[in-house]
Amino acid sequence: MKVDFGPHFEPKVSLCRKMADALEVVELLERAEEVEELAQLVGNVRKRYIRDKDNPMEFYNDIEFKKRFRFDKETVLEIAHLFEDRLTKLNNRGLPVPPIIQLLTALRFYATGNFQLVTADLQGISQSTVSRIVKKISIMIAQLRPHYVKFPSREEGRTNSLHFFQTARFPGVLGAIDGTHVPIMSPGGEYGEVFRNRKTIFTLNCQGIVDQNRKFIDFVTGWPGSTHDNRMFNSSRICAQFERGEHDGILLGDSGYACRPFVLTPLLNPQTESEEAYNVAHKRARNIVERTFGCWKKKFPCLSKKFSLTKLETVTTVIVATVVLHNIAADHGLLEEPLLHEVENEDEGHHPPPQPLGAIARRAIIQQYF
């Protein structure tokens, strides 16, 4: 049955419908505002950048900064400038890492050798990102090696020789050579044991040649810890260059090297005053390489700890990168003299016999100068 409410009821029904429509519109607008606020919040998270107060360049004073990163701020900016065209922002799941922070991340790792400490210091950067940054920056710095670790020209060699002579009265010296060990985790596998040195520690053996300014002029790494220094030198590029007569002058090495015309070693059993004087001068001149290793490892403590890096290729890259940085530090007067116990002075116990021509060259030096 159809009910007729009369003509006066139609406007009231129409008004109710309009009010319902209006309430629905208001509700939709409120939901839209909530969605917009949520989208803005999410957008802000995605666009978040490391702010200025999170930048160690601004947060730390000069003394604190140098203590943490081993360089002053000016030198860090100079280092960053060397490869800034290749330093793009690394994305850490929505958190872009500025190039300067990437460099500081690597420097902090070299100063600690601990990914966890780096992550704690540089808040907002995950440990996995720190690991990627250290590898990336180390490769870039190591690629600068030809510019910062190079053998002297003939003119520079004469200057080196003069400095060595003024210091120790030893003639014709281009540099001092020695080996040093960097501890690593056991590589494992079939050949893992060859990395165990005579102290039963897993290491990489490194060969350095330094000048009178405590700068590396040649460097070799990657050899297992069980390798003798003499074998490492015999296989090196610099040895081949000396054998071809490409360098004027001599190197000073300890008794772990075979005495040869271009590598003079001390006498194991000096018999005369001249031979004693030769040994004293030799030790005084060669001591620079032991002090340089001490400076290098003091500046970059990661070299004295077992690397938490698992790939040997990455470990050797980090080692070379620190050598480059050491020479940059030397150029800027940022090397610290090592303490007595930090200076390496160990005999590896392996004394190869002198080569005949080496013994003749050593005897001639003794007769002429001592």
What's the structural blueprint in terms of helices and strands?
Layout: H1 10-46, H2 56-59, H3 62-69, H4 73-82, E1 90-91, E2 96-97, H5 99-112, H6 115-121, H7 127-142, H8 145-148, H9 154-168, E3 173-183, E4 203-210, E5 216-224, H10 229-234, H11 237-243, E6 250-252, E7 263-264, H12 273-299, H13 312-331, H14 356-369
Parallel strand pairs: 3-6, 6-7
Antiparallel strand pairs: 1-2, 3-4, 4-5
Helix pairs in contact: 5-7, 7-13, 9-12
Give a quick precis of the structure.
About 50% of the residues lie in helices and about 10% in strands. The chain has about 375 residues and is of the alpha/beta class.
Q: Beta-strand percentage?
A: 5-15%
Distance between the termini: 136 Å
Radius of gyration: 33 Å
Which strand order do you get reading across the main beta sheet?
A: 5-4-3-6-7
Percent of residues in helices comes to: 40-55%
* Extended strand count: 7
Largest sheet: 5 strands, mixed
Quote the average pLDDT: 83
Structural class of the helices, strands and pairings? alpha/beta
Count of helical segments? 14
Which parts are unreliable, with pLDDT below 50 for 5 consecutive residues or more?
41-53
Secondary-structure element order, N to C: HHHHEEHHHHHEEEHHEEHHH
